[in-house]
Fold this protein.
Amino acid sequence: MRTLPQRFVEARTLTVQLAAPLSAEDQTLQSMPDASPTRWHLAHTTWFFATFLLEPYDPGFAWPDPRYRELFNSYYEGVGPQFSRARRGLLSRPGVAEILAWRRAVDEAVVACFGRADPALRALLAPIIELGIQHEQQHQELLLTDIKHALFQNPLQPAYRDDLGDIVPAPTAPSPGDETPSLNLAGGRVTVGAAGGEFHFDNERPEHPHWLHPFRVAAAPVSNGRYREFIEDGGYLRPDLWLSDGWAACREQAWSAPLYWIDGAHAFTLRGVQRLDPQAPVCHLSFFEADAFARWAGARLPTEFEWEHFACLHGHEAAAGTLLDDGALHPLAGEASGLRGLWGGAWEWTASDYAPYPRFRPLPGALGEYNGKFMSGARVLRGGSCVTSHSHLRWTYRNFFAPEKRWQFSGIRLAMDA
Amino acid sequence: MRTLPQRFVEARTLTVQLAAPLSAEDQTLQSMPDASPTRWHLAHTTWFFATFLLEPYDPGFAWPDPRYRELFNSYYEGVGPQFSRARRGLLSRPGVAEILAWRRAVDEAVVACFGRADPALRALLAPIIELGIQHEQQHQELLLTDIKHALFQNPLQPAYRDDLGDIVPAPTAPSPGDETPSLNLAGGRVTVGAAGGEFHFDNERPEHPHWLHPFRVAAAPVSNGRYREFIEDGGYLRPDLWLSDGWAACREQAWSAPLYWIDGAHAFTLRGVQRLDPQAPVCHLSFFEADAFARWAGARLPTEFEWEHFACLHGHEAAAGTLLDDGALHPLAGEASGLRGLWGGAWEWTASDYAPYPRFRPLPGALGEYNGKFMSGARVLRGGSCVTSHSHLRWTYRNFFAPEKRWQFSGIRLAMDA
Amino acid sequence: MRTLPQRFVEARTLTVQLAAPLSAEDQTLQSMPDASPTRWHLAHTTWFFATFLLEPYDPGFAWPDPRYRELFNSYYEGVGPQFSRARRGLLSRPGVAEILAWRRAVDEAVVACFGRADPALRALLAPIIELGIQHEQQHQELLLTDIKHALFQNPLQPAYRDDLGDIVPAPTAPSPGDETPSLNLAGGRVTVGAAGGEFHFDNERPEHPHWLHPFRVAAAPVSNGRYREFIEDGGYLRPDLWLSDGWAACREQAWSAPLYWIDGAHAFTLRGVQRLDPQAPVCHLSFFEADAFARWAGARLPTEFEWEHFACLHGHEAAAGTLLDDGALHPLAGEASGLRGLWGGAWEWTASDYAPYPRFRPLPGALGEYNGKFMSGARVLRGGSCVTSHSHLRWTYRNFFAPEKRWQFSGIRLAMDA
Amino acid sequence: MRTLPQRFVEARTLTVQLAAPLSAEDQTLQSMPDASPTRWHLAHTTWFFATFLLEPYDPGFAWPDPRYRELFNSYYEGVGPQFSRARRGLLSRPGVAEILAWRRAVDEAVVACFGRADPALRALLAPIIELGIQHEQQHQELLLTDIKHALFQNPLQPAYRDDLGDIVPAPTAPSPGDETPSLNLAGGRVTVGAAGGEFHFDNERPEHPHWLHPFRVAAAPVSNGRYREFIEDGGYLRPDLWLSDGWAACREQAWSAPLYWIDGAHAFTLRGVQRLDPQAPVCHLSFFEADAFARWAGARLPTEFEWEHFACLHGHEAAAGTLLDDGALHPLAGEASGLRGLWGGAWEWTASDYAPYPRFRPLPGALGEYNGKFMSGARVLRGGSCVTSHSHLRWTYRNFFAPEKRWQFSGIRLAMDA
């Protein structure tokens, strides 16, 4: 068991390592308002510790420039104004080298501050450091999905990492229409949400009862091969399969395949253009595509509570898919049978809107903005992806994105009424 | 008890009566994509019976012009293409007189078709006519809210009806901060949704169990006076009270009061500019404003299931607010005490997103698009408004709008954890 | 020779006659910000006399509603604020009947005011009435081009006038590539602009010398048949033929033929859908299309000074094309030979930007905004169209529109270096 | 006199020197579609020689990547498709180091190709190299104005060069309203345009006669101090001073001072925030502001022919303002009296739209797109700026920008009717 400062240093170091393959030019790009430049992720995660820990608790703390407080504030109104999100890509200063130097200074100050703290102060600092580590891990994932989107804008199709070799598809292709087996669950009054103990975000609390009808959940996520059948069956051309807003998005954005598919056989990945593996989980889908696919398949998306209950009962280590720790940077095909891909691989869209649990209480102060104020218009995703750290996941974890977003590693696990 | 044809004729007649105070020029206006011209409502409701009843079941049926099939199709992909929603205000032909003549012809054909039908055919026609009446009633409400929005664009501030006299505020103003009493509910496993019997939309079905925590619900809706306190306390200036998307909408659209408020003492109504009654229910709020108000008041919005359970237990005739049948065309202050305003007055925003009930099945065919495909991005409202017909409402009724919309008569009833 | 009051009454009456075939619904439509509703044209031309003549010079004058002053102000900052141009179609009040009554009252007041004026006052009033007649004539043309655009939005393709019979194409089609003969002009130091005497807008003054190179001008405007050759030769697909801004407009707006062409053989007209006459002048072209056509044809557009010099030397009554007085409401094919279509038919785009003449002085006061402030970004058109009154035209007349506009009757006459 | 290869190498080297103070992050920024990243300027100017000289004339030429041909094509439809202008800032590869290496390779290849060419080939190559040098110089100016705009987006207000010391205002401030003396010109038939001989762009040809009225031109450009009087007199608040499109731009973009003014006393410059010198030429004005100022001052802008005729008669070396060669990177106050600032300092907006001269012929082939296709919607500027090279200017030189653009060093010299 590593100490909190050890885990802090590890998390902080990993972010720098993930940025290392990128040039200063790469780290400056912002390809859309949803995505941020690498240099911004490096700076904002540092801002987080500076703002919430050093400024209030370290008497020796000073900003390199007081304007950093606004420049790297993401969305905390309680902290003060924020530099415009959509314009992060218009900044070149501070440069990458300057940001990295600031990171080192902040990291040392955090470790020193915690090291010299008495137990009472440690009790205040520890939850902030823990939250900061979780925050850092979220930005590690975003750093990778954001740079993937940015590099994809370049007709040269450059890879984030071109030193890892090609992705090798699984040896045998599945038969068309080959149905994934599913597991049966009885439902009734179940308990969902986080009780306490280990770290949880405020949005996972409190633990509470929920009523479930009997249902079934697929043992495996939907594969590229199966999704290609949906496409070939006119899935992107049939409005009857889509929610009204989904159909509008499909038409306006001219969707005809998952994001990053180049043709029916190749896709752009963090490792450059690669052959699609028909057996690997499909990813980079919007909620609307996931929902339309489910309707086409005669199934539906699980609610987040069905997903959580299922995972609690059946989730085990062997059910994992590709995680950041594996270094593949893309969801790989798992074992040919059994429950799989439940964590890692691709985030799984659920049918649930992102809403507060009964008696939800956000964190006090500006950190209360971390989750609660976004509970509008998003859908919950569960289970993690190939760029999520193993240590970041748990069955109660709630990720959330607007239903038309596609740049995350987001896929599908089907559910059915039983 | 009136017969189905009688109720059909009554509903159809009421629409024409509601349009009667409006000139041909008025009936041509479309002030935003969400709203439709009066002439379009008159034609579309007629299109509904032509498309779903006469075309399939009346051998003598013919369209006045075959292009009407597309021109007055609102959103039914299963019927075929639709004339652009945002461009309905660019049409002047067919004119109002022509549309009214078509209405009469269709009404006669529907009555005749039903009249000569054998019992087997009647069993097919009756549910279509019943759905068509409900559909007509929904468009009666929209006709009024749409023309209110259109007339408001005119600096001359013309009234829809200027022959009804002024709205007289209630004699005594409430004390500031005067808290509305609330009722306690125990929660637990409750049953929600429609079991069958009377008419229900598909989105109200099936009846199903739901788990509720103990909660409280206010006996009365939030009043103009109480809402003015929120404004005066900086409610529109404090981001901490708002959801993130709500704050963005508030800034972009420069909200500083409910829609139609002209100053703190007057508002534009269907009866022209009128003095605000501090005791009458506040209305024309977005979900975001309702949510921010609730947070400011130390309360929250009820879920739609809390609302329904509450209404089932406590709703009674005396709890009604202003309805279309009353002819006031604006929510009036009710009795000074007791449970009130539960139906009519203003629709009450709930915290619930508009989602399918467990095992929801849409109607077969194109009518399956009536509700199901809109289950994305909207919030449920309950209870009806001052422009809803009494016969249109029931406790299981689910209305829904996007959270930033304000042109409906939409208000607030607070809930709290018990 | 008619008196000024006679001409005033005739002009005012013609506007009402032009609106007469339109229903109240028709008169309410605004299909784009450039176009205005018929009811607005009726009111604004009345506002013009109320603002510039009655208010300052008629002691008994009163507005029906003081808000009309703002409501029907088109763009005169010197008069005060203006109701938003793009929102004119959102108004239904005052209705058509009310506006017509106001017109009659204003017309009577103007005639009475002039009638009782002493010579000194008459000297002040006469130029305002004259300008108002010219203004009225401009709005008569706009009333027709605006309603044509509005009716075209309707899939029912309703005609402004369906009682005039079909347009009959000229009996013999021209041979492909058949070159129109052209006339030679020596150029040198010529005089252009208006010297005074008859009415002229301020933008036609002062008369001034201009240097012209030797040039040639086509005897006839470009025909539909010739323009179709341009289309068939890929004219809309070859960027080398287009100005850069023109090519961008062509791509963005997906131009592939003149506005209102339905296919290569039919076009929407004020008389409904009609067969295209290959020998009639092509119209409803943007400047960019006219310019691209000229480049394709190995020619160029004339400058406005070449056009004016040419017209001064060669223009005669027989050179006229279709005018409003003819009642055809569409440019018809003229004589098979000789100089033709020089006035009427379609406005002819020139290469000249709309700029002030040397020593240009706008009218004093708010009327100085009539022309001068629009001298930015527009191109000059010369010669009049099929919806211009004969009495409105003269060789020095400068019309102007932004280069991408197509809803006017605008066409091409080619020029060449000699 | 330097040889053509010498001048080529000098021009190419200067571009690299101008980019040298910028980090790789800086060189990646694109702050608006009008502006391009530094790295793109470095690559595009190289592309120019690769496309128009090496590809056709150097048998050994090969692209580093064939996709460069599209990636760095600015707007030449005749060469082929172009990567989207507005998205140049979304590219990080090839990186700056890679682009610089490519520059070196192309430079060597051009020199070698010319060196080994026989006289016939040299006669073909020389005009391309000459045009390429002129093109390079234009992009040197753009590189500086574009990075100025990009750095200005950063709240840290970083300087392009912070090693040049502060700009020292001239010692004595001018008296308010102090009128600049002006020179009288008789006009009549004058000759304008380029006759041949020295290098000229195609848009400067042919030389031709033009008729001028008598006029006066101010001896000095408008100063910051004088422009401040315009502001203080409500210049940005009075619609009567503005063209209609200008007033719309002023309102929409909330102009209240020249671009880069921070307050009435400071401005952002390439040397960071500096005090405004009241006697230095005002710059970073749109045409609309220049035109409004002139109207306020009771004067007007000169036409480009007035400007050229004036410069031909009176221009001399001593009339120069700040040039790129001076290294100041900002227009400085000149001598206190006499004709000054005629070249360099700030480009001077003229009243003339950018139009082809009579009998204008663009260059053959794709190079014909260099100038001609932009002759729509722009106004001509004359005289050069503080970031134009001395060797790049001549009295017939025509620069042009859309009238609302402000990011160039653009200012005002007044003219009057005589």
Chain A has a mean pLDDT of 95. The interface with chain D takes residues 23-29, 31, 39, 65, 67, 70-71, 83, 87, 89-96, 150-151, 153-156, 158 of chain A (CB under 8 Å).
